[in-house]
């Protein structure tokens, strides 16, 4: 399975391209994204172009990259490309997603409203409707049946014991695999 590319890396490249309204060359993108190895940056730019988030004009050293919809004479697409797993959004959610997806320079600075927190009284006032709270509570419970108290902590402790034993024996030169160590601890079976 291919490693998932962090969204922050793609946004950093888009931000670097957006700083050049006339199109950014590869060397200009490299100078604005110093943390990326050259090959990684090339692969990320190719992914952005393939996803339709960037447009490439020109060839080889003369290539320029533009944010989609900002190329002179080009129409902006009506649907933004998917960047991750599908999550259904309300109309208001889609509007907010558009606002926060814009490059930082294009966002309008907004002050903080103190009354937002001052008017909140825990367990008396709610920002979400009762239906939304019930829905989130049901989603947060998950599919697991109720278990006795301490079950989850015991599972974590068992996993920690196995990992600690395996790493400790590995430092001493033991050749047990992680699975062999787990069998030894859980069932008393030697490899």
Write the layout of secondary structure elements.
Elements: H1 7-18, H2 26-32, H3 38-50, E1 54-57, E2 64-67, H4 91-101, H5 115-118, H6 130-141, H7 151-171, H8 178-187
Antiparallel strand pairs: 1-2
Q: Can you describe what's shown?
A:
The longest helix has 21 residues, at 151-171. Strand 1 (54-57) and strand 2 form a beta hairpin. 47% of the residues lie in helices and 4% in strands. Among the domains are: 1-76 and 95-107, Winged helix-like DNA-binding domain superfamily/Winged helix DNA-binding domain (Arc Repressor Mutant, subunit A, Orthogonal Bundle); 151-187. A two-stranded antiparallel sheet has the order 1-2. Helix 1 crosses helix 3 and helix 7 crosses helix 8. The chain has eight helices and two strands. It is mostly helical and 191 residues long. The two termini are 31 Å apart.
